[in-house]
Amino acid sequence: MGDRLAIVPVTMQDAREWVDRHHRHHRAPKGGLFALAVALGDEIKGVAIVGRPVARALQDGWTAEVTRVAVIEGVPHACSKLYAAAWRAARALGWRRLITYTLASEPGTSLVASGWKIVGQVKGRSWDTPSRPRIDGHPLDDKVRWEALATSRTPPS
User: Fold this and answer.
1) CA nearest 145: which of 33, 55, 27, 11?
2) What pLDDT, in 10s, does the model give residues 5-58?
3) In DSSP terms, which residues pair with 149 in a beta bridge?
């Protein structure tokens, strides 16, 4: 493969293990629709996992979500390459919109570089409630919602 970054296949299990080892602040999601990786030669440098939207209100049958991207620090363009490839793959599978979130404190440079747009802000919050106690193992900061959108959107039938 040489010394250029390339998109390569990865199993969901391997992608989840990669995220658990390398993501800065999240564990791997429980499931997903598909995963992909970016490699330099034979060495994987990052992965992306795409699943259904976490927010029920966005589960319209046409929207998927990049639930995790994890890359090795210091590999230029790895995140941008993964976001762009995730959108190409999602479109090829029939999805009309792909969303993802960044912490408000993150610049989103890779998303801008791969053609995504900011479409909303989400207030950070805990999911811990008296009726459903949870331990928050992730940042509770505000988030930015990003979107890659197909130019022609066909409504669900």
Assistant:
1) 55
2) 999 999 999 999 999 998 777 777 788 999 999 999 999 999 999 999 988 899
3) 97
Element counts in the chain: helices (H) and strands (E) = 3, 7
- The answer to whether the beta carbons of residues 47 and 37 sit under 8 Å apart is yes
Amino acid letter, residue 68: R
Query: Which of 136, 67, 73 lies closest to 102 in space, CA to CA?
Result: 67
Question: In the structure, what pLDDT confidence band is assigned to residue 149 with cuts at 50, 70 and 90?
Answer: confident
> What is the CATH T-level fold of the domain 5-149, as seen in this structure?
Aminopeptidase (3.40.630)
The residue extents of the domains of the chain are 5-149
Q: Count CB-CB contacts under 10 A for residue 95.
A: 20
pLDDT tens digits, one per residue of 60-84? 999 999 999 999 999 999 999 999 9
What's the token pair of residue 40? Answer: 């330099």
Q: What is the pTM of this model?
A: 0.84
Contact call for residues 109 and 120 (beta carbons, < 8 A): no
Q: Tokens at residue 30, please? A: 């429980």
